[in-house]
Automatic annotation (TrEMBL), chain A:
<dbReference type="GO" id="GO:0000036">
    <property type="term" value="F:acyl carrier activity"/>
</dbReference>
<dbReference type="Pfam" id="PF00550">
    <property type="entry name" value="PP-binding"/>
</dbReference>
<dbReference type="InterPro" id="IPR036736">
    <property type="entry name" value="ACP-like_sf"/>
</dbReference>
<feature type="modified residue" description="O-(pantetheine 4'-phosphoryl)serine">
    <location>
        <position position="37"/>
    </location>
</feature>
<keyword id="KW-0444">Lipid biosynthesis</keyword>
<feature type="domain" description="Carrier">
    <location>
        <begin position="2"/>
        <end position="77"/>
    </location>
</feature>
<dbReference type="InterPro" id="IPR009081">
    <property type="entry name" value="PP-bd_ACP"/>
</dbReference>
<dbReference type="InterPro" id="IPR006162">
    <property type="entry name" value="Ppantetheine_attach_site"/>
</dbReference>
<keyword id="KW-0963">Cytoplasm</keyword>
From TrEMBL, chain B:
<keyword id="KW-0444">Lipid biosynthesis</keyword>
<keyword id="KW-0560">Oxidoreductase</keyword>
<dbReference type="InterPro" id="IPR057326">
    <property type="entry name" value="KR_dom"/>
</dbReference>
<dbReference type="InterPro" id="IPR036291">
    <property type="entry name" value="NAD(P)-bd_dom_sf"/>
</dbReference>
<comment type="pathway">
    <text>Lipid metabolism; fatty acid biosynthesis.</text>
</comment>
<dbReference type="GO" id="GO:0051287">
    <property type="term" value="F:NAD binding"/>
</dbReference>
<keyword id="KW-0521">NADP</keyword>
<dbReference type="GO" id="GO:0006633">
    <property type="term" value="P:fatty acid biosynthetic process"/>
</dbReference>
<protein>
    <recommendedName>
        <fullName>3-oxoacyl-[acyl-carrier-protein] reductase</fullName>
        <ecNumber>1.1.1.100</ecNumber>
    </recommendedName>
</protein>
Length: 77, 245
């Protein structure tokens, strides 16, 4: 797993309090990992801070799974 | 009780009677305070009176860009933003039949839209901190209505609905959002009234007197305190019984 994916996973596990095994490529933050809409905003804030990037609102809306997040950040960072 | 040591607070309209009293109460409880307003001179004077934990942050709330920049400036000056008090407001009183679009828009812009923008601006830092206090100064007329104040009453009532909705969204993150709704408060504005006018006003108030800015500040101080952590989405009416809501 890439360095970005490891760091994203760590944030997701910490923030949502889920087991690492559940954070898979296609795991949806809301449907599979128990996040509410506010959690997704906070995750995006945490990603921005961790990777020193800015994630615009329209891009953030498209980040729905762990895989989406890793892909977006890998391209942006 | 009500120790705000280590907390940072931004107060808009701090150059006015009520805003100044709010800033003073928060400062005396130990908070670092950002004083915002359009008139720099009274803000500087208040900051000098308070002491080194007071910062002057001038802002014209009619200017959207300036409003967006204010929370950032406050955080840069104070190192954080735990408490937001939206106190600034303007009036453009006019009989409704004669009310212009400009009178309407300017009151909505400053009293409601700027408040919304500042609330939005503090969401991130408060969410991160898992602690925050938003206190919006509404008005008795937002609940009762008042002839000549269609625009002002609409803005102040709008503030209540907005505050409740914000309170809902962020309650689980340790952030509370409440309103304080003052009745008649003795300020420089009411000092201009003659004795007959004052007597007329007092006759409508069960407490038979106007309130003081300090009595509004005390309500704000409570809502800003850690002790008020379970109070959210509420409106605290401070009006001497003029409207029992």
């Amino acid at each position: 797993m890439s360095d970005v994916a490891e760091r994203v996973k760590k944030i997701v596990v910490e923030h949502l309090g889920v087991e690492e095994e559940k954070v898979t490529e296609n795991a949806s933050f809301i449907d599979d990992l128990g996040a509410d809409s506010l959690d997704t905003v906070e995750l995006v804030m945490a990603f921005e801070e961790e990777f020193g990037i800015e994630i615009p609102d329209d891009a953030a809306e498209n980040i729905q799974t762990f895989g989406d997040a890793v892909k977006f950040i890998s391209e942006a960072a | 009780m009500f120790d705000l040591t280590g907390k940072t607070a931004l107060v808009t309209g701090a150059s006015g009677g009520i805003g100044g009293a709010i800033a003073k109460a928060l400062y005396e409880a130990g908070a670092t305070v950002g004083l915002s307003g359009t008139r720099v001179e009274p803000l500087e004077a208040l900051a000098a009176e308070l002491g080194e934990r007071a910062h002057v942050l001038p802002c014209n709330l009619g200017d959207a860009e300036a409003v967006e920049a204010l929370p950032k400036a406050a955080i840069a000056a104070m190192g954080g933003l735990d408490i937001l008090v939206n106190n600034a407001g303007i009036t453009r009183d006019q009989l409704f039949m004669r009310m212009s679009d400009e009178d309407w828009a300017s009151v909505i812009d400053v009293n409601l839209t700027a408040t919304m923008r500042l609330c939005r601006g503090v969401m991130r830092p408060m969410m991160k901190a898992r602690w925050g206090r938003i206190i919006n100064i509404s008005s008795i007329v937002g609940a009762t209505g008042n002839p000549g104040q269609v625009n002002y009453a609409a803005a102040k009532a709008g503030m209540v609905g907005m505050t409740k909705s914000i309170a809902y969204e962020v309650a689980s993150r340790g952030i509370t959002a409440n309103c304080v709704a003052p009745g008649f408060i003795a300020t420089a504005m009411t000092d201009k009234l003659n004795d007959e006018q004052k007597a007329k006003i007092n006759a409508q108030i069960p407490a038979a007197r106007m309130g003081s800015p300090e009595e509004i500040a005390a309500a704000v101080l409570y809502l800003a305190s850690p002790e008020a952590g379970y109070v959210t989405g509420s409106t605290l009416h401070v009006n001497g019984g003029m409207a029992m809501l």
